[in-house]
Design goal:
The chain is mainly alpha-helical. Helix content is 56%, strand content 6%. The protein is built from 14 helices and five strands.
Length: 329
């Protein structure tokens, strides 16, 4: 069975775009692949060196993924910092990673621009740590967005380089992986583009009803249909797209028809959409709260994940140590 691996930075809660995109992907993949999903808390220190609340952030993200249906029995769900083998592989890989090539990566250059006051070595070697994450489980498929493709390419390069330098066939080359081509892309409420963290336009699973109402009521619209059956503008299409994911089919049909015959009132559309989003997210919010309150369950989940991840990681690390020339004393 092929191994799939993805890391999740513990910054920011899951929004509807994540839910209908990456998370649905993970849930499907855990049924048919050997999946590793982990919280990249070491990586988060490259941008947030003194996190206010690291433990609670990790807990929140874990609870959110569990509430969405990541199954810790089927997948290996773990916290990066609980697996010291990753740090050792990172150290060893750093010896064969060149400063020049790391300086040229787009993500590094972006970060240098974004935080000129903190260009730390961890930032430079971020892709080396990411490579260690991936190849320590010999993963071949990495489900990531466009922005992460270069990092996967670097992982491929370092896996290949390791094999060549020591003349072994230790690591397979990981590939970016897009599971469902036909996954729903949730747009933002700001008239164009997608819902995303960097766009700052998310509606979160863990969000108060009042706050959701406010966001939806502020959504961008247009001047209204000017003639029967006229083309739907992008902002309105976006509202319909979200409605398609969270509302009953007859609700969508009602407003689509109202648009076509020019009787639509955007205020009504938004009110209905807000209530349907709230009805959709409320059970998740409740579940996230239940999981966070159940310390024993969370402890058991992390124990199990750590155990499974370390078992797999230490196997690879033994091999790597031996390949490089370390011997048992
Ligand atoms: N760099 C990824 C991001 O910013 C997170 C990440 C860390 C990751 N390690 C990984 C993703 C390994 C895929 C595989 O989202």
């Amino acid at each position: 069975m092929e191994t799939v691996l993805s890391g999740i930075r513990p910054t920011g809660n899951l929004h509807l775009g994540n839910y209908f995109g990456a998370v649905q992907n993970f849930i499907k993949m855990q049924e048919s692949y050997n999946c590793f999903f982990f919280i990249a808390d070491w990586h988060s220190l490259t941008t947030h060196p003194t996190p206010q609340d690291l433990h609670n952030n990790v807990t929140q993200i874990l609870a959110e993924y569990l509430a969405c249906g990541i199954d810790p029995e089927k997948a290996t769900l773990y916290v990066q910092s609980e697996v010291p083998e990753i740090a050792e592989l990172y150290l060893l890989l750093n010896m064969n990673a060149y400063v020049g090539e790391l300086e040229r990566t787009t993500t590094f250059k972006d970060k240098v621009r974004a935080q000129p006051e903190n260009v730390n070595a961890g930032l430079l070697t971020y892709p080396v740590l990411q490579t260690a994450d991936i190849i320590i489980h010999k993963a071949t498929k990495v489900p990531v967005g466009k922005d992460q493709e270069q990092n996967v390419e670097i992982a491929r390069k370092y896996a290949r380089r390791f094999n060549q330098m020591y003349n072994v066939d230790c690591f397979p080359e990981p590939m970016p992986f897009n599971f469902g081509e036909n996954l729903v892309k949730i747009p933002g409420l700001d008239g164009s583009g997608k819902m995303g963290k960097s766009e700052g336009n998310g509606i979160f699973l863990y969000e108060d009803a009042e706050s959701i109402r406010k966001k939806v009521m502020r959504a961008v619209t247009d001047a209204g249909p000017q003639a029967p059956n006229s083309e739907v503008s992008e902002p309105i299409q976006n509202l319909f797209t979200i409605m398609k994911s969270v509302s009953q089919p007859d609700t969508l049909q009602y407003f689509t028809e109202a648009y076509a015959n020019c009787t639509i009132r955007y205020g009504d559309l938004k009110k209905q959409l807000a209530e349907d989003i709230i009805a959709f997210t409320t059970p998740f919010k409740q579940k996230i709260e239940d999981i966070k309150a159940n310390k024993k369950y969370l402890h058991d989940v992390v124990q199990l994940g750590t155990h499974k991840a370390r078992e797999s990681a230490s196997k690879t690390l033994q091999e790597v140590r031996s390949v490089i020339g370390f011997r048992q004393w």
